[in-house]
């Protein structure tokens, strides 16, 4: 086994969270190497909905949602699917998820999510300004729309709820909604407009720019390099890969859905982390149909306009990290989207995708430091949203600076 040069810090995981951290620390003068078993940002960071979802300040599951689960599991077009073969494995995680739905815990989770999301859009704006890629972030808002009369009042009450907690939310009636997005179908009766949200409209180019900036600053990228072991040696830490051992003073675990084993190895803590397998369908021929992301309240998926076409995303599948992709989950998004648009929706050259969202049973990420290891993973649906802010917080932990706010809710040993 070859011994290579010593780095200040090794980042395990090359998604948007890991890359943002690596770039931030390299710019601060550290010598950083980043590892990914695939290409950088090729997983959930590439396949997400592109939505900077600062309005999503409530847990991923609630008691109200729980009542709908049996019906959703029976519906082939449902946003939720459970592979029954995976049930014995995920059952303890699901029980923790349900336990976290009790009102007192759900409220605490909501407060902790809100603390992160209240700061996430500003962090993104600073981030793209700093790295000269602000043209890839559009801050024009997003919509949550309804097509059922009985849900108009439900969403109107949600507007009041959002406003009461300081989130800018505005009700648009049918006329106002169609003035804002003329290509939405007339069957849509209204929706909530969230002005303080945004979207990334060219994820591949933005990620490439960030990678290039990291390399230009002298950072080291080890793509297609699986980390086999992390060892604590007398002369520091070592990241073991095939045929090589890389010395480093510190390690950051930002491997998303694959972080659980490293937390267990390095601390003995068993984090209740599983994966929500997410799907998207990119429609290259569906250009310029929308100006901002639009989420369907009933159908529970999102349509995001991107330079490459219209991206349909938002399904959840519990089947673990090893099961083969179930691509009908992606293609069914086309069936869900067609009735929401006036213009015929072309599926020509459509591109399905599947990836792994890292979901902890309390809907909160881990952002914590244990001796020479920093953990930053488990952002569930909000990895893209919270990445630049997480990088700021990790930098503060790394240099032993006071953090911008109390990180107790995100500690590794909270479970």
Defining traits:
11 helices; 415 residues; membrane; FAD/NAD-bd_sf; 8-stranded mixed β-sheet; globular; 21 strands; alpha/beta; transmembrane; FAD/NAD(P)-binding domain
Instruction: Write the CATH homologous superfamily.
Output: FAD/NAD(P)-binding domain
- Alpha-beta classification: alpha/beta
β-strand percent reads: 25-35%
CATH fold descriptor: FAD/NAD(P)-binding domain
Q: Radius of gyration, Cα only, in angstroms?
A: 21 Å
CATH top level? Alpha Beta
Count the beta strands. 21
**Helical amount among residues, as a percent range?**
25-40%
Protein name: FAD-binding oxidoreductase
Pfam family, one: DAO
InterPro entries: FAD-dep_OxRdtase (IPR006076), FAD/NAD-bd_sf (IPR036188)
GO cellular component, one term: cytoplasm
What features would you describe in this structure?
This protein is an alpha/beta fold. 34% of the residues lie in helices and 27% in strands. The chain is built from 11 helices and 21 strands. The strands form 4 sheets. Strands 1, 2, 10, 11, 12, 13, 20 and 21 form an 8-stranded mixed sheet that branches. It has an 8-stranded mixed sheet with strand order 7-8-6-15-16-17-14-19, sandwiched between helices. The longest helix is centred in the first third of the chain and has 28 residues, at 103-130. The mean pLDDT is 95.
